[in-house]
């Protein structure tokens, strides 16, 4: 973990510019798709972290798709942003499901029960 933080802090200028540009554009696209400003602002740090982590993993494992270093940085950052987007959307879906179940537990129950007749209602006995 300390090695990742050390490499993330001492990243070169080119990688920093690529991460900033890709994360910014991903945030703008997220803003236009979701129409929620706060949600887009929350996603941008996740995109940045995903890009930096994937770039670090590419360097750590020695995985270089092309012989050009600059192209490898762009590929790693793009793959990291896509994976971060999927992880953030999955987290949002799980949070929405949990909120639905929590809200359902606190909603009022109906006092009336439907019986055989369509217009007749009786009080439910508990």
SSE run: HHHHEE
What's the Cα radius of gyration? 24 Å
The pLDDT mean sits at: 84
Strand content: under 5%
Structural category: mainly alpha
Distance between the termini: 57 Å
What is the total tally of β strands? 2
Task: Name the strands of the widest sheet in spatial order.
Answer: 1-2
Keywords: Membrane, Transmembrane, Transmembrane helix
Transmembrane segments: 13-31, 38-58, 73-101
Question: Could you describe the 3D structure shown?
Answer:
This protein is mainly α and 126 residues long. The chain has one domain (1-96). It is built from four helices and two strands; from the N terminus they run ααααββ. The chain has helices spanning 2-9, 13-34, 37-61, 69-106; strands at residues 112-114, 121-123. It has a two-stranded antiparallel sheet with strand order 1-2. A hairpin with a 6-residue loop joins β1 and β2. The longest helix has 38 residues, at 69-106. The model has no long low-confidence stretch (mean pLDDT 84). The chain crosses the membrane at residues 13-31, 38-58, 73-101.
């Amino acid at each position: 973990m300390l090695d990742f933080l050390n490499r993330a802090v001492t990243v070169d200028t080119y990688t920093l510019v690529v991460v900033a540009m890709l994360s910014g554009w991903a945030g703008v696209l997220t803003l236009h798709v979701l129409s929620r400003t706060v949600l887009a602002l929350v996603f941008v740090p996740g995109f940045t972290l995903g890009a930096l982590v994937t770039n670090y993993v590419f360097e750590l494992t020695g995985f270089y798709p092309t012989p050009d270093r600059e192209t490898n940085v762009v590929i790693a950052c793009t793959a990291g942003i896509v994976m971060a987007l999927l992880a953030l959307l999955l987290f949002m879906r799980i949070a929405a499901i949990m909120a639905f179940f929590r809200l359902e537990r606190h909603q009022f129950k109906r006092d009336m029960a439907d019986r055989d007749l369509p217009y007749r209602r009786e009080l439910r006995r508990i």
